[in-house]
Amino acid sequence: MKIVRKDLVRNGPGSVKMVAVDSDDLWYAYNLIAPGDSVMAVTVRKVLREAASGGREAERIKLKLEIKVEEVADYDKEGSMLRIRGKNILENEHVKIGAFHTLELELQRPFVLRKEVWDSYALEVLQQASDPGASADLAVVLMQEGLAHILLIGRSPFHGDGNHGSNSIVKYLKKALNKFFENVLQAFLKHIDFNVVRCAVIASPGFTKDQFHRHLFLEAERRQLRPIIENKSRIILVHTTSGYKHSLKEVLDAPNVMNMIKDTKAAQEVRAMKDFYDMLSNVRSHSFEIVFFCCLVHAMIGILNFLYEKFSCSQ
Question: Could you tell me the superkingdom of the organism this chain comes from (predicted)?
């Protein structure tokens, strides 16, 4: 999230002008905006105008509105859009004060969020949105040839920095691979702060991770990149089945990774989730046993009732 302007008081009122750079930023906005806040942004609204014929015709125009939020209606990750519904509070010739409107927040379009109280939760979400690395415990580079994701794992849902590189076939493979590794190296330096994270994981199927690992350290020595040189022992390799985000689970299951972050918030949450799934699996197993036992008891009661009636009749 790009913060353009910030004017607020901790535990007091204030406003922040920001721009969502990627879909993860809209997710942060979804968690940040609450009923009672006000949001100002450029929007599109259908208005009625007098036609030359004397009638009225509808026209869609762009205008700036500020609404008092009543509902954070919908977060559309695929469409990269966040819809917020509320009443207009900004004087406008086309929209009456108090009229309902739905703002659609999109990528690269600035908006202003005002709150009566910026509490500790709101400030933490804002900090994570503007600097995801500030609260991360673990950095992961998930990659395969031509594709890489930089993921920062912390106390909130992980932040993905998107794709670096391309899956297209390149005529000069070695040159393309070096360019790809350089892009990943620049992203590594930009997003991973060893003063914050415990360790950085390079993960991939095959030998891509090993090649990038070697490239990383060669370039670090050549350019004297101190953050990498001084933290060699905190950069570890893990094998995964792919370079896509779903392979993050394989990284978090690796014992050497969990050992490096064992006393962090991220590790506690990973263990809690694993315990939950184990419990769910056991509950399902026990549920089957309970249902089977109940059916067996029910059948035996039926048989006993039948024998009792049979015995009573014979008497």
Answer: Eukaryota
